[in-house]
Design a protein that fits this description.
Elements (H helix, E strand, L loop, with lengths): L6 H52 L3 H7 L6 E3 L2 E6 L11 E10 L2 E10 L2 E11 L3
Antiparallel strand pairs: 1-2, 2-3, 3-4, 4-5
């Protein structure tokens, strides 16, 4: 039988390749997880924006909107209403999601820009409008 002369070097090379493979796979799985969470947050933001837009469009005035979202810690600043929602999109004080409705009026038509923030970062927005009855 032949004696292997470079067994130590072979083991080091094999271990190095194995470690690099593990690192690359780990990075791939972590990246996939981050993207998955980001996609889930965006999907939740779209759902929340749609729900808030439906409430806005079905309400005659801000009073009804504030009443519907009373458990969401409503905050009103100038022409912007803000509401807080938890990770399950349920109204909650100090939730992770913030829905903001910024309204502007031109004649008989009122528009609303609806922004969804996640932990302070804007991740989605839509614009809608309705005819204002006088």
């Amino acid at each position: 039988m032949k004696k292997r002369e470079n067994l130590g070097i072979e083991i080091i090379v094999i271990l190095s390749v194995f470690i690099v493979s593990i690192l690359v796979l780990s990075k791939t799985f972590v990246s996939a997880r981050v993207r998955s969470l980001s996609a889930a947050r965006l999907s939740d933001a779209v759902t929340l924006a749609s729900n808030v837009a439906d409430v806005y469009l079905s309400s005659d005035d801000e009073t009804k909107i504030l009443e519907i979202f009373k458990d969401a810690g409503p905050d009103q600043e100038n022409d912007t209403l803000s509401f807080s929602f938890d990770e399950d999109l349920k109204p909650a004080e100090n939730g992770s999601f913030i829905a903001q409705i910024k309204t502007s009026k031109e004649g008989d038509f009122e528009t609303a820009d609806i922004f969804i923030l996640y932990q302070g970062e804007k991740i989605y927005s839509i614009k809608t409008g309705k005819e204002v009855r006088q």
